[in-house]
Task: structure prediction
Amino acid sequence: MMNKKSIEDIQVKSKKVLVRCDFNVPLDKDGNITDENRIVGAMPTIKYLAENGAKVILCSHMGKPKGEPKSEFSLAPVAKRLSEKLGKEVVFAADDNVVGDNAKKAVAAMNDGDIVLLENTRYRAEETKNIETFSKELASLAEIFVNDAFGTAHRAHCSTVGVTEYLPAVCGYLIQKEIEFLGNAVNNPVRPLVAILGGSKVSSKISVIENLLDKVDKLIIGGGMAYTFMAAKGQEVGDSLLEKDYIDYAKEMMEKAGDKLLLPIDTVVAKEFNNDAESKVVAEGGIEAGWQGLDIGPKTIELFSDAVRNAKTVVWNGPMGVFEMPSFAKGTNAIAQVLSEIDATTVIGGGDSVAAVNQAGLGDKMSHISTGGGASLEFLEGKELPGIAALQNK
Ligand code: AMP
Result:
């Protein structure tokens, strides 16, 4: 996965370049974009291509129109916002077929440096099934394909994988950065490498645990998933999250990991799943019936922080507690704080940990914040992402 060709490795001048972006932005009920991060993230690749004289044809999905044109999922607002941000017209090729007469006309009228945005690729039922008719249509518009949508790189769709059958395919800056940081952190890290896993379920992170256990110097497990490990040690966990079916698995992992694995040594427990619930800190093994663990305790914060301070590379996926509730966000915030202070490569692996780091206002202190939830998780699982595998090697 390491050595994929990027837009800087090919000639783009006067070429029609189809770029798969991630413009899956949230809209309010009036169709206004409420978070433009993904648009901002896509700009470096678009600018590079336009400034280097390519004819830039953008495409993306947004939401789930389920294979038919639905105006509330139109990318028209994205074209407008992108034009404003670039200070340059982005022509929106309104077209219920995505690659219909309007799109073809818009592309035919392009000069070098022009930008066209196609309609939502998921207006076409073929898209998510990777059916070749639509892949061919998309490819017929261009001479080169650039994938810059990391968030959908774990899906083999027409606009991520299908088109690469018909066009030379390279990555844009966003995917290049994901490969560099996530890829190196997991496969070629400066050591010690410490991975921090949290979140609610062991079951959803089994493959991540298995893949990382072989590679890391320390594996820290906090959050809701830690209670299944505590139960595996024979401890009571009260009303905490517990996946009984995974207790044996947790035992197996603990044996395999030996002293590589760090688990919580104290817990913030509460009477109810509620920010204002009565709460207290209990030592290891001290969670009583009627109480549930909602955050790591202060001693655990120290233990985990010390392990992290020694690291040269840290990968973090999943909060240490119910960080959405201020009363139970201390553990997660403390970890974010330590990561922001250390002299190490810090990689935030998608999903809720990204939200947690941003909530703590520390996003810009991390080396890399992954933009894909599911895609980052599959990366950490050691899976080959089809949207990246399909790109040309250097
Ligand atoms: P995941 O999607 O599996 O990464 O889990 C993220 C969710 O786990 C967040 O919404 C957290 O609130 C939740 N979570 C973390 N720790 C706990 C806990 N101790 N009890 C219940 N939920 C938790």
About this structure: The two ends are 10 Å apart (CA to CA). DSSP finds 13 helices and 15 strands in the chain.
